[in-house]
Amino acid sequence: MMLTALLFPVIFLSIHSSLVNGAPEPVPTFTDTDPITGKSLVCERCPPGTFLRARCTETQKSECAPCPNGSFTELWNYIGKCLRCGVCGHNMVVKTGCTAKRDCQCQCRPGYYYKMKYDMCLRHSECHSGQEVLNAGSPDEDTVCRTCPNGTYSDIVSAHKNCTEHKDCEAAGLQLALKGSVWHNSVCMDCQGSTSKDGAEYLREILPAFFVHQKMAIRRLRQILRRLLSEENKRHEGISGLYLPELLERINTWVSSATAAHIRQLPAILTKTGANNAAERLQNKLQRIDSNVALLCGLNNVMDVQISK
């Protein structure tokens, strides 16, 4: 879709030149009155790119003149002044410049698309975590998203990124601690080491993606951050002034330094802030990890003991 700059209302007829029986069509005309004699006259209109500088008389044809810079006429006309070139609106850029025969053509600037319902350019939608871009946004169309295909995931919000394949734990010589979903990668564990990790350590890997995917309200994220810091007797002044990027960054900082014991308390903290569904989902993830750690790493440890005997 091409957006044209706004024109002042002018009523005049559009007639295109064509050949009929090998001869051009007559120049379009209009009816006027001779200012001296008062007689009715049939006068020629002026072609696109010009305007009527002087009306015709009984002895003189219409006098047309080229449009000055910064003005235009697109149609055959008999107006006394060319139209001023338009100016592109908010969040628009010039696609083609104004000429004597055509107004400038505008389109939405990069990252925006034209919404006819509102007659304005809106920012392209972003695909949430668990989704990828099916059709990238253009000046005329919004972004189209779709759920990540099986075996892939996206853990960020983006208007450009596609989903990534899950890690293959077996190919890397590791065991699967938690199967990947559309919003987080698979979590792998190594049961061959001398000491096995606490299941909460593996849960830590998906927590940044978890808080992005839950789409929690800003107010709730602030409550969660306050409780996380209070649990470790850390200062939490200034949290009321933080918004989504800063809140997620502060939560991720807590996640990276928290002990396994503190991470295990996270579902309970979410419940205290009223995020019951999120707490239940996180607890289920932790239980699955714990089950796989106990089953796979416990089995490997038993086998190692038997071999050593």
From TrEMBL:
Keyword terms: Apoptosis, Disulfide bond, Glycoprotein, Receptor, Repeat, Secreted, Signal
Its cellular-component GO annotations read:
extracellular region
The domain of life is Eukaryota
Please report the residue spans annotated as repeat (TNFR-Cys): 66-106
Q: List all disulphide bridges recorded for this chain.
A: 67-82, 85-98, 88-106
Coiled-coil-forming residues are none
The processes (GO biological process) annotated in the record are: apoptotic process
Keyword Protein transport included in the entry's annotation = no
Which residues constitute the signal peptide according to the record? Answer: 1-22
Domain TNFR-Cys residues, every copy = 66-106
The subcellular localization recorded is:
Secreted
* Pfam families reported in the protein's UniProt record: Death_3, TNFR_c6
Tell me where it mainly resides: secreted
UniProt protein name: Tumor necrosis factor receptor superfamily member 6B-like
